Amino acid sequence: MSLFRIRNLSFAWPDKRPLFQNLNFDIAEGTITGISGPSGSGKSTLLNILTGFYMDYQGSVEHKGDPLGLEKVLELRQKTSIVPQGSSFSVLTLKELILEPYTYKSNSNKEPSLEEIQAHLSLLGMSDKNLDESVVNFSGGEIQRVAIAKAGVFPSTILFLDEPTSALSVKDSEVVFNYLKTLNKSIICVSHDPSLLNQCDSVLELGK
Question: CA-CA distance, 88 to 51, in Å (whole number)?
């Protein structure tokens, strides 16, 4: 059974031409799937459909054999982490930022140990960072890697990322992809980065 099964999927904004039409593809569980295509081809829109934020589409989207209706979306979000494009944060310490999801009652029993957090940061090349350090002076690339670590350490089974290497050097992009491969998650990633896409298990190309 596919993690996601998409059939004849079409989407258009009101009074606009369709971003995509009649998409058909399957996403296997436990794999890294890339979504590529030129700007304006609907990559981020497709990510928002798969995460249940956009429901006004034509065609069918199934998650593990069930239609992605409201009830299924609520279930999906309980096991999903999302790293949006251009992540930004208010002034927090590194520890406060990564532990922010566990301030919610539904996640309070899932809080990772400081050792787990440090292990994830180390895999992302940030072992030199102090958890009590403010993120206000972090570079864009460091903020991006912190956002990925925050999502990676969370005990979700599905991870969605939108342009996760856009602010990173070639070297740091490789570090990020190697980190993603260590996670026990199904990963769906929008990217323009050929080096990342070439290492995905499968790639859906929009706008062909």
Answer: 20
| Sequence spans of domains, the chain | 4-205
Spatial distance between the Cα atoms of 10 and 77, rounded to a whole number of angstroms: 23
For residues 72 and 66, is the Cβ–Cβ distance under 8 A?
A: yes
The pair of structure tokens assigned to 138 is: 């972090």
Average pLDDT over residues 141-147: 91
pLDDT at 91: 64
pLDDT tens for residues 154-193? 999 999 999 999 888 899 999 999 999 999 999 999 999 9
**pLDDT tens-digit series, residues 32-86:** 999 999 988 999 999 999 999 999 999 999 999 999 998 999 999 889 999 988 7
| Short-list 63, 49, 82, 68, CA closest to 160 | 82
Rounded Cα gap, residues 154 and 67, in angstroms? 26
Cβ 155 vs Cβ 106: under 8 Å: no
Alpha helices in the chain (DSSP H): 43-50, 70-77, 94-99, 114-123, 140-153, 170-182, 194-197
CA terminus-to-terminus distance, the chain: 27
Using left for φ > 0, alpha for ψ between -120 and 50, and beta otherwise, residue 197 falls in: alpha
Q: Kindly report the CA angle at 72 between 62 and 184, in degrees rounded to 5?
A: 75
Q: What is the fold of 4-205?
A: Rossmann fold (3.40.50)
